[in-house]
Amino acid sequence: MTDTPHIMVVDARVHEDIAEELARGAVAELDRAGATHIRYGVPGCLELPAAILYAIRSMDFFTARKRFDGYVALGCVIRGETTRYDTICAESARGLQDLALRYALAIGNGVLNVESREQAWVRATVGSKNMGGQAARACLDMIDLKRKFRLYPR
Predict the structure, then answer these.
(1) For 104-119, what is each residue's pLDDT tens digit?
(2) What is the pTM for the complete model shown?
(3) Is 30 annotated as a binding residue?
(4) 46 labelled as ligand-binding?
(5) Domain CATH for 17
(6) Residue 1 lies in a domain
(7) Domain count, the chain
(8) Is 78 labelled as part of a ligand binding site?
(9) Domain coverage including residue 19
């Protein structure tokens, strides 16, 4: 990429240790690409789409802030004993996808949907699946694609 992308990294803090590892992978990938980034935390995965929407809509009121070129959403949903797992997984993914399609956003979805903490750690760990890094790479790749279609604001 020729231009330095500015990325919002937002992570759900409900499983803080896993969120930290996902963020470690994402930030390392963004640093490797030379992207700037600001990280924000939200309580859970259902709040991820709202946080991204807040950043988008804030430009309507405060244009002095640098616009984000892309977004990386990180979090972990671990199946429990209730059906809440299904709702959180479906609605957080739907919310992120709705934002990407409605606003033509580059969003890397790094929300893990797993059965156990052990599965989460395999997927989150930088030395293993590194899903945080993969989400950041997806975001950067989508920014690059937007540039090819001249959808990039610069």
Answers:
(1) 999 999 999 999 999 9
(2) 0.94
(3) no
(4) yes
(5) 3.40.50.960
(6) no
(7) 1
(8) yes
(9) 6-149
